[in-house]
Write a structure and sequence with these properties.
This protein has a single domain, classed as Spore Coat Polysaccharide Biosynthesis Protein SpsA, Chain A (Alpha-Beta Complex), CATH 3.90.550. It is globular, with a radius of gyration of 16 Å. A hairpin with a 2-residue loop joins strand 9 and strand 10. About 30% of the residues lie in helices and about 25% in strands. With about 210 residues, the chain is an alpha/beta fold.
């Protein structure tokens, strides 16, 4: 599917409980993780980009400053064309971010991305998009298991609007196995997600 028909949805409302610090602002290669995913998304001509963020995370983003590679102080810049969706009910779990963003999204499909996979490549996103249509679910495989990012065709909109708890869209993905398109990934390092300090240590060791 052409990216111009797809709503890209960045899920950034989590509390980072296992990490015990805000993962959006963890630094890697001179910039916070949130900027890595925003840069990746901006390299495509998506129908729209929705950034789902908690009120607390948004305030932290607005206050956060860091030193750039050239020594200047910088703030996180959310692109003006991104639609910021403030999730006021993060206590309802990841599913609420999925429901909330799906309600707003107007594309023919939805690509859900997280902020904690800074090594994702545009080639992988291209593979996912080129395999996607309105009737299937596309995702990469990591160690034989489904992994983010995940593409849902519009046919699954109603199901996405009714997910509950912490499972997010994975419960819908697991329900409709006949619709799966699994993307094999030769270099699984790019699928590393940062959930713990150990994960972050691994990331920092990758050049």
């Amino acid at each position: 599917m052409d990216s111009t028909n797809v709503s890209a949805i960045i899920l950034a409302a989590g509390e980072s409980k296992r990490l015990q610090t805000n993962k959006l602002l963890l630094m890697y290669r001179g910039k916070p993780l949130i900027e890595h995913v925003m840069h990746l998304v901006r390299s495509f001509d998506f129908h729209e980009v929705l950034l789902v963020v908690s009120e607390e995370n948004l305030l932290e983003l607005q206050r956060f400053e860091y030193e750039s590679v050239n020594g200047h102080r910088k703030r996180v810049q959310i692109p003006e064309d991104f639609k910021i969706l403030v999730n006021q009910h993060i206590n309802r779990g990841l599913s609420h971010s999925v429901v909330f963003s799906t309600e707003v999204a107007s594309g023919e499909a939805y690509l859900f991305l997280t902020v904690d996979q800074p090594l994702l490549t545009s080639n992988l996103i291209n593979e996912i998009l080129s395999s996607g249509n309105t009737r299937n679910i596309v995702f990469p495989m990591k160690q034989g298991k489904p992994c983010s990012p995940t593409f849902f065709g519009r046919e699954f909109r109603t199901d996405l609007l009714h997910v509950k708890g912490q499972t997010g869209g994975s419960s819908i993905r697991d329900l409709y196995t006949f619709a799966h398109i699994k993307i094999p990934v030769e270099n699984e390092t790019q699928l590393l997600d940062i959930d713990t300090l150990e994960d972050y240590s691994i990331l920092r060791g990758i050049l």
